[in-house]
Write a structure and sequence with these properties.
Blueprint: E1 25-29, H1 33-45, E2 49-53, H2 56-66, E3 70-74, H3 82-91, E4 99-104, H4 110-118, E5 123-126, H5 131-164, E6 168-172, E7 178-181, H6 183-188, H7 208-219, E8 224-233, E9 239-250, E10 256-265, H8 267-320, H9 325-352, H10 355-359, H11 362-377, E11 380-385, H12 394-415, E12 419-426, E13 430-437, H13 444-448, H14 453-468, E14 472-477, E15 483-490
Helix pairs in contact: 2-3, 8-9, 8-14, 11-12, 12-14
Length: about 500
């Protein structure tokens, strides 16, 4: 009789149970030939594919070449015991999914059973046992193998999904250790392989400034946290900003198994956001540079031409005043128009680049603005500016001056006010500017919907200027009750460099 066979002995009819799983492969190993023949035949009749062997070395070779789903090993075998065959199967990573059943009519003590299970057997059976019980036990084990295969397939499927994700995925156990991760997580943190990450303390992978917050967020987590931002530490110690989603991982019994983290690097997004934050300041700096250029050209060019023309007209008037009084009067009026044009140009030039701001400071420049507005419109303008113990940085001076200028311009054009109040104070930590009018006001909700378009553009400009200085701009208004604008600029965060003109 051959030691193993895939064929049924000749002369024996094949009876297949169509309800059984027909392609499950079982290797049965026993040196008791009658037992081997009878019990292997009963498995074939049940619809399984059965291989047989009569000693340990042959069984081991067959397991390695055929990789059956289930191996039934007699404990006592010639050449190599069933226990040793089981141990070698468990030591081979290529055979880790093979189920092993030890069966014995001699080694039946509790200690021997425990030893057999300890080396990796999935079941331990005792001889003698009836065919019906034997087949029932095997059916149970086959269901386990099928369940395990399904779980492995599911695990591989989800592992494949995790690996193709562009985000870093990691599993943190209750001791805050990294229990699993995908390749993206290793690459993002600068590690050559996932194995380098496993076992590391997850808290130590977070930047020191975010560790307490991260630990508290994870410990208090009950469901999920979306889009939390932290800075992680790469292997080389460099910080990397990430946006992280956190979720509790639970066992089937609803016990906390750990936490799942999904992190996406946001370095590029942060760079773009910073560029966008700087954009208003750069636009403002470009505007100031252009205003300074135009102001200089008005002063050095147009104003000089107007002044020269006015002087010549005055001389002509003097020459013909006695000869042609009518012409002299006309020239006098023309001279006055030129003088008015010269003053208007000077006013425009001052607004483009306020020399008062450079020479006298923020308070004096703002008072001059208010005086001009009062002269031009008849509005009652009341100013209250506290003295600064230390001059603000030039960029803050210029920024706040432009905010006052823009706000007064808005009031003149839109508010229909009678009185304007300006207050400016400094507490050493921040400068607070308040501009209040008693005009017609507006509905903030309508402003948000775009129904008050021009006013909205002006207020947006104020907010952008305040943000460029690291400050805030709060606008409160009510129909028929005027508008109040409060700007607060922290001196510690304000730009301290030289203001660009």
């Amino acid at each position: 009789m051959t030691s193993f066979s895939r064929e049924r002995p000749r002369g024996r009819p094949t009876v297949v149970n169509p309800a059984a799983k027909s392609r499950t492969r079982i290797l049965m190993v026993d040196d008791n030939l009658p037992f081997l023949g009878l019990y292997s035949e009963s498995l074939r009749d049940a619809g399984y594919e059965v291989l047989t062997a009569i000693d340990g070395p042959q069984a081991l070779r067959l397991v390695r070449s055929e990789v059956p789903d289930l191996v039934i090993l007699d404990v006592v075998l010639p050449g190599l015991s069933g226990v040793e065959v089981c141990r070698k199967i468990r030591a081979d990573p290529d055979l880790r999914n093979v189920f092993v059943v030890l069966i014995s009519g001699h080694a039946v003590s509790a200690e021997q059973t425990v030893d057999g299970l300890a080396i990796g057997a999935d079941e331990y059976l005792f001889k003698p046992l009836s065919l019906s019980e034997f087949k029932a036990r095997i059916r149970t084990l086959i269901r386990l193998t099928e369940t395990a295969a399904a779980l492995r397939a599911s695990e591989q499927h989800y592992r494949g999904l995790v690996e193709v994700l562009p985000d870093a995925v990691a599993l943190i156990n209750p001791r805050f250790q990294v229990a699993g991760a995908n390749e993206r997580a290793a690459a993002m943190l600068g590690y050559d392989a996932v194995d380098e990450l496993l076992g590391k303390n997850a808290i130590e992978l977070v930047h020191t400034k975010d560790r307490d917050r991260f630990r508290a967020d994870v410990a208090a987590l009950k469901g999920t946290v979306a889009n939390a931002e932290y800075v992680l530490l790469r292997k080389d110690g460099k910080g990397i900003p990430v946006e992280m989603n956190l979720a509790v991982s639970k066992t089937p019994s609803d016990a906390r198994f750990g936490w799942i983290t999904v992190a996406r690097e946001v370095t590029e997004r942060k760079r773009v956001e910073e560029e966008l934050r700087r954009l208003p300041r750069r636009i403002s700096e470009a505007q100031e540079a252009e205003r300074s250029r135009v102001s200089q050209e008005l002063h050095d060019g147009v104003n000089q031409v107007i002044a020269s023309a006015a002087m010549r007209l005055r001389r002509v008037q003097e020459m013909i005043s006695t000869q042609n009084p009518a012409a002299s009067e006309l020239i006098s009026r023309s001279h006055k128009l030129l003088v008015q044009a010269l003053e208007e140009n000077r006013r425009i030039a001052r607004n483009l680049r306020p020399t008062d701001l450079d020479e006298l400071g923020l308070g004096a420049a703002c008072r001059h603005l208010c005086k001009e507005l009062k002269t031009r419109t008849g509005l009652a303008v009341k100013c209250q500016f506290a003295r600064f113990s230390k001059p603000p940085p030039p960029a803050v001076d210029l920024g706040l001056f432009r905010i006052v200028q823009e706000a007064l311009n808005n009031v003149e054009k839109h508010a229909r006010a009678k009185t304007i109040r300006l207050r400016m104070a400094c507490d050493g930590q921040a400068i607070t500017l308040n501009i209040q009018d008693d005009g017609r006001g507006f509905d903030p909700a309508a402003l948000q919907k775009g129904e008050v378009e021009r006013r909205g553009i002006g207020l947006s400009s104020l907010r952008e200027r305040a943000a460029a200085l690291g400050g805030t701009c709060d606008v409160k208004s009510q129909l028929g009750k005027g508008t109040s604008i409060t700007v607060r600029v922290p001196l510690g965060k304000a730009r301290r460099g030289k203001a660009k003109a």
